Structure formats: structure tokens, C-alpha cells
Amino acid sequence: MSGEPIIELEGITKTFGKGVAAFKALRGVNLTIRRGDFVAVMGPSGSGKSTTMNIIGCLDSPTSGVYRFLGSEVQSLTKDQRSLLRRKYLGFVFQGFNLLARTSALENTELPLIYHGMDKASRREAAMKSLDKVGLVPWADHTPGELSGGQQQRVAIARALVTDPAVLLADEPTGNLDSERSIEIMELLADLNRSGITIVMVTHEPDMAEFAKTIVHFKDGVVERIDAGSKSDARREGAI
Amino acid sequence: MWTTTLMLALKEIRRHMLRSFLTTLGIIIGVASVITMVTLGQAATVDIEEQISALGSNVLIVFPIQNEQGVWRPFDDQDIIAVREQIAGVKAVAGTVNTDVTAIYNGQDWDTRVEGVSNEFMVARSVDIAEGRNFTEAEEEAGDNVCIIGQTIQEELFIPGVSPLGEQMRLNTVSCRIIGVADSRGIGGGNQDDDNSVLMPIKNVQRRFIGNDNINNFAISYDTNVDSDAMIEAVVGLLRERRLLLEGQNNNFDIVDTAEINETVSSTVGTLTAIVAAIAAISLVVGGVGIMNIMLVSVTERTREIGIRMAIGARAQEVQRQFLTEAVVLCCFGGMVGILFAFGLSVAAASAFGLPFIFDPFINVLSFGISAMIGVIFGYFPARRASQLDPIEALRHE
């Protein structure tokens, strides 16, 4: 946990709506995520964890506060600039997998590279490498409809990894999976983290949060407390 | 990037083959009808021009009309001589009379018409001899029983491959010897078939078929360097004098200028073609609205996909380009199929109406260009809508 800070949030607020209907989703979030970290964000619904995730993921801008990404302030970037930042530095994994239907695992994995202007052969190669990381090379030609939920989420992870992002953002990655598949996915994420990838994950399942190194608890739009994940510690100790 | 966008668009179109086809049907019909209309219009123009040029170029046709009292005064030989001798620039003056007859050969009957003509008629009306010869001066002078038959007569009465030259054919009760076969004259004045005609020296026809020296009408052919208006003025002046018309009295004859007919008919057909093509173009616009409609449905259906693309870093302009490309590819596809349809339709319609088929690359390229443009215009709004989606909302879309 001693890496350089990748994500620094200082006094981030977010207000939805205006006037009497205004709703303060975030009331001053302060959070630092360092390179190599594996952060689980927890909290009841309405606590601001998803809003924070959207801001970290540059899908949304904060109302006020400072967001530094790799040392640069990014809170007031334009829509297009945020797109480019997502393209180069961020990888997304969603609860609903969000793969393109009737499109093979390989092509789904290739998708982000299209926006990097890569030629077809290089795209293929990078996508296969990424699918290899999640153990799905034999399933490369299958469409999401032909894959199990766990496999689909692996494809989504491969897609997020294919651009070598600085941070992998996972929003309830196990929300649509049974407990056995959930554990598989969490083990995969933990493995990826051990190989050096920074991960920020939103979850409402304490069991899953335990895989993370750091657990951030949200309540009423602020960070309530930060814990260390127990399984992660145990593993790390075991590994030493 | 462009090839990737294009591949993506093609893939998306293939994925919904039936829908894509139905969507482009409007464009297909629009393009096909515009091209077919213009092609047929051009064919009709060419056809009419050919028919009119069969009357001869630089030719005035003079015929009597009834005056206010309903009196119809024909021309005679003296009128023809006067025109020939008193007006400068006249090359040939050919009077003609005609009457319906029945031609009989080998026991076969055929309804036709006999035209009393001179060799000058052949010059003035551009009648060429396909086989045999023209009348000799002696034959003309004497009004011999010799004739030149039209193509239709040859086809209807004579055995194919056998030359009719030298054969005796009967017209009503008059027997005549065939000395020539005329080249096809096309369908000239009015709807009559000018090839269904027997040409005989005018004196013979006046004497044996009609019984007077009247001349129905005459054609004046004049030098190409003579202005047609000046020529008409000269002819009108001379004929008014000869027909003793006082100032204030209307002409009891009329003059038709073939060049003028040609121009009038061509421009009329051109105008009609433009109107019909414009009506057909409306279907292209309707087709464009169809494209817009289905693209809007597609954007709604694929909201989640748009969200995914935005999350992984697609900029608004890239999303917009993707949907715009899809619309343009759809329209281009419609344009191409429309051109193929138009080709088949034009060939079929041309042969059904007895018109020549003329392939005009310009209208085909233009229609294709317009269909691509319709893709841009009607694809813009849906593509713009797709690009303006909020990624967070789009990802939540069910």
C-alpha cells in the first residue's frame, strides 16, 4: 500500500437537481487510492458509493472538490476529454457484464482497441493475450449467449484489461452471479491485483469485500471508515 | 478508423438483414423510379426526334385550312411552281395528294394509301430508296403506272426474301409496276404509319384515283443557311397574294415548321420528364424519413451498447460517426439496388412502349449520390441523439 497515489479525492461533493429538489449525494468525500491497491467500496444504497464510482470513472463530474488522477486535476474536464481519459487509463467491469450480444468473446474484448486506432491483427493479438489472463482462450469464438454468467464476467474483465489501464473499476462485479462463481471472479480479481493492477470495486456483499486489501465504508455521502480486508491480509501473510 | 467504422456498420446491417432491406425499400423504390422516369423520358425524346427528323430537316409543310366561311381551298400546280421560282433559298417543293386504297397482290388484300409524289418529294421529305430506283422524269411527266412501295407493304404482301421489283400490284382497279422499295420513314406526321404507303407519280394519282388537279399539301425544303422565320414570311406573303387575301383576312392555309415541332415536342417531353422525376423524388424523401425512423429505433434499442462504447472511451463524435455511417451505408445499398431495379424496369418499359433503351450514366451516378446524401441528412439527427446520450443513463438502460 505504499505506491504513488493514482486517485485523490479532496472534498468532493455532488448535488443532483436544483433548488428545493436538490439532493446532495456526496457531501465532501476525501479518499486516496494508491498504485497496486485493491479497494472495495461498501455502503447502503444512497450512501454515495455509486456516485463516487462514477466520478472516479470519469463518467460524471463532481459539483465541487478536487479530483487528481495521477497527479493531474481532472474534475473539470470536458465530456470528450473524460472519454479520452477513460479510453487510456480506465477499465470498466459492470454488474450486468454489458457485453455486446451476438458478438464473440474475442470481438467483445477487442472493442476498446478499436478506439485506439489499432489494426485488426494487433487487436486480435492483444485481445487473445487478455482472454488468456482470464482463462477464456478456448471460448474466444463464443458469443455471450453461449457463455455462463461467470464466463461472461471474465470476458468483461478481459475487455477492461485489454488496454492495460492504470485502474480497473468494477461496479458490483459479482452482483449477478451465484456465490461459487462470485468467489471465482473475486479470486481472479485478487490474482490480477497481485500481478500489479490497481482495482476499485463497489460491492454490497461483505464476503466479496473481504477479498480487497482496503474496504472503504460510505454513509450519507461521506467516507465513514476505512478497514483492511481480512482475506486479503491472510493471503498476503500466507504468501510471504 | 474509417474501415473499422464501415465494417462495424456492415456487420450491424447484416445482423438485421430483413429490417435493413425493408428500411431501404423506400430508397430503392425512390431511386428506381427517378432513374426509370428520366431514362424513359430521354428515350421518348430521342424517339420523337427521330420520328420528326423523318419529316426532313429544314422543311416547311404547307396545307390549306378552312376560312371563316368554312371554305376549303386546295393548292394547285401553279402554286408549287410559284414558290419554287419566286422564293430565294428554296431547294425543292414537293406537292402531294393521297387517298386510301386497297392493294392487292397474289390474291392478298391490304388497306393502304397511295401518295402522289414527285422526285422532289423524295428530296424534301428525305425518303431514301432501299431497293430499286426513283421515278424517271419521263415517268413523272407521263404519269406512268409505276410505284415505289413502303416497308410495311413489302412485309404484308410479299413473300420474305423475294424481291418485289418488277412485280405488278393492283391498287383498287389500277395495276402498277413496282420499281422501288422505300427505306423506313418512321412514324411521321400524326399516328399514321408512313411506311404503309404506295408512292406514285402525282399526275397518275390525280388522274386515276382522285379525278382533279388539286394538291393536298406541299413540302418546301430550303437551304440550311436560310432563317426559317424569313422563309415562312416569304411563303406566307406569296401565298396570300396568290390566294387573293385582303389585308385583315386570315390565312386560309397553315405552315408547319418541322424544326419548330421538333423543338416544341422535345421541350414538352423534357418538362414532363422533369415533373414525373420530381414526383418520383418525393418517394426518395419518404425513403429518407423511413431511414431516420428506423435509425431512431436502433439508437433506442442499442442505448446500452452506446453506453458501453462511451464507458470504454468512445467520444461523442465517434458514436455519431458510427450511426451516421450506418445510415449512409443503408442508403448507398438502397441506391445500388435501386439502380439495378431501374435498369431492369427501364429495359422492360422501353421494350413495352417500343422506345429505345438509352443508358445514361449521369442520372445513375446522380441518383446514387443523392441517396448517399439522404443518408447523411436523415441519419444525422438519430446519430446526434446517440452521441448526446449520458453514459451513466445509457448503461442503466434495460
Q: What would you say the CATH architecture of chain A is?
A: 3-Layer(aba) Sandwich
Number of strands of chain A: 10
The largest chain-to-chain contact, stated as pair and per-chain residue counts, equals:
A-B, 26 and 21 residues
Structural class of chain B: alpha+beta
Proportion in helices of chain A: 25-40%
Which percent range fits the helix content of chain B?
55-70%
Multimeric state of these chains?
heterodimer
Distance between the termini of chain A: 15 Å
Integer count of domains of chain B? 2
Shape estimate of chain A:
globular
Descriptive notes:
The complex is a heterodimer of chains A (240) and B (398). In chain A, helix 3 (105-114) packs across helix 4 (120-133) and helix 5 (149-161) packs parallel to helix 6 (179-194). In chain A, the strands form two sheets. A six-stranded mixed β-sheet of chain A has the order 6-7-8-3-9-10. Chain A has a four-stranded antiparallel β-sheet with strand order 2-1-4-5, covered by helices on one side. Chain A is built from eight helices and ten strands. With 240 residues, chain A is of the alpha/beta class. Chain A has a single domain, classed as Rossmann fold. By secondary structure, chain B is an alpha+beta fold. Chain B has two domains: 2-50 and 263-396, no CATH class; 74-251, no CATH class. Chain B contains 13 helices and ten strands. Chain B has a six-stranded mixed beta barrel. In chain B, strand 6 and strand 7 form a beta hairpin. In chain B, helix 2 (17-53) runs antiparallel to helix 12. Chain B is elongated and about 105 Å long. The model of chain B has no long low-confidence stretch (mean pLDDT 87). Chain A binds chain B through residues 54, 57, 59-60, 79-80, 83-84, 86-88, 90, 92, 94, 98-100, 102, 111-112, 114-115, 117, 120, 159, 163, and chain B through 1, 4, 8, 15, 304-305, 307-318, 391-392, 395.
